[in-house]
């Protein structure tokens, strides 16, 4: 039963995170992009803080290390990632599936940053090939034209690539901080501080709450992103991370684009292009090459005699 429960939660997580790209695209018709992202995490942060108060004995950060980890999470994982993602998705030619595929590069970039910034990590020759394949995948998806880098949706897709890079860098930097803070506390305070930073950026960009168009659709998009994709999604993520480990949970990034494509097609009449499919294949291949050792050990442990866990 536990195995079926894990599979079910994995599919639910991929579905809510994948369809979130469609909800972002739909909500951007009614909200300025950075303000939209900030409002999302106003709501999600309050919900996560309430959960941290319920689930942990340390709902309030203490000490320099814990506040440093929260600052990194707020700047990179929440503010930079979501501001760039939401701005990138304002381009009408960037489909939900394309955005999800670019974001699926995050595990590849996380490994690359870890090799550069964590002394215990090294990047082999085959690992370099995997990293480069992931970057080529983004280039294919973005349909880069060297003679005109500002053509089409290239800039928007590069902004989303910047979002994925910010998330990956933030993930690695948090690992460098020696903090034993509960993950629920870190997420709650990072969301709230990140939302505050995005409100400041929104004002700096000239966005106004007066330009928000409150309709059934806009409220539904905001509620879905705040409650389903953020609050519920992270709760499922925490549970599966403890049960499955980082390798299997990383695979959510490669299932989510499928749900993004289905949701975009069902609600926004979006049709994935061949460059989206080709870019996804290259990014996933890059991930497999970078994580080949960990994947091999995981497969041995899951389907062999368990010896791979000690390799």
Automatic annotation (TrEMBL):
GO CC list: membrane
Listed InterPro entries: AA-Vitamin_Transporters, EamA_dom, EmrE-like
Keywords: Membrane, Transmembrane, Transmembrane helix
Chief location bin: membrane
Membrane topology designation: Multi-pass membrane protein
Record's subcellular location: Membrane
Classification via SUPFAM superfamilies: Multidrug resistance efflux transporter EmrE (SSF103481)
Chain segments annotated as coiled-coil in the UniProt record: none
Transmembrane segments: 7-28, 34-55, 67-88, 94-118, 125-144, 150-174, 186-206, 218-237, 249-268, 274-290
Domain EamA: from-to ranges: 9-142, 158-290
PANTHER family assigned to the protein according to its UniProt record, in alphabetical order: EAMA DOMAIN-CONTAINING PROTEIN, INNER MEMBRANE TRANSPORTER
Name the UniProt record assigns to this protein: Putative inner membrane transporter YedA
Species this chain originates from: Haloferax massiliensis
Classification lineage: Archaea, Methanobacteriati, Methanobacteriota, Stenosarchaea group, Halobacteria
């Amino acid at each position: 039963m536990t195995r079926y429960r894990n599979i079910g939660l994995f599919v639910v997580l991929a579905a809510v995170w994948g369809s979130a790209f469609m909800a972002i695209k739909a909500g951007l018709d009614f909200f300025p992009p950075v303000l939209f992202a900030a409002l999302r995490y106003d709501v999600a942060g309050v919900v996560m803080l309430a959960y941290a108060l319920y689930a942990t004995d340390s709902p309030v950060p203490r000490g320099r290390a814990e506040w440093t980890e929260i600052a990194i999470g707020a700047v990179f994982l929440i503010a930079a990632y979501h501001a760039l993602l939401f701005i990138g998705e304002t381009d009408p030619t960037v489909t939900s599936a394309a955005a999800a595929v670019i974001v699926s590069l995050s595990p590849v970039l996380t490994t690359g940053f870890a090799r550069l910034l964590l002394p215990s990590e090294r990047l082999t020759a085959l690992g370099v090939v995997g990293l480069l394949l992931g970057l080529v995948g983004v280039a294919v998806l973005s349909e880069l034209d060297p003679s005109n880098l500002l053509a089409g949706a290239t800039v928007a897709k590069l902004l989303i690539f910047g979002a994925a890079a910010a998330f990956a860098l933030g993930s690695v930097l948090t690992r460098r901080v020696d903090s034993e803070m509960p993950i629920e506390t870190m997420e709650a305070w990072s969301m709230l501080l990140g939302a505050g930073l995005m409100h400041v950026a929104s004002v700096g960009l000239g966005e106004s709450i007066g330009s928000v168009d409150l309709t059934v659709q806009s409220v539904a998009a905001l509620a879905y992103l705040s409650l389903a994709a953020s609050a519920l999604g992270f709760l499922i993520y925490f549970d599966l991370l403890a049960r499955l480990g980082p390798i299997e949970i990383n695979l959510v990034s490669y299932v989510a684009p499928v749900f993004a494509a289905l949701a975009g097609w069902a609600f926004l009449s979006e049709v994935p292009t061949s460059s989206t499919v080709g870019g996804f294949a290259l990014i996933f291949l890059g991930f497999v090459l970078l994580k080949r050792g960990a994947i091999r050990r995981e497969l041995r442990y899951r389907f062999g005699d368990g010896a791979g866990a000690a390799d």
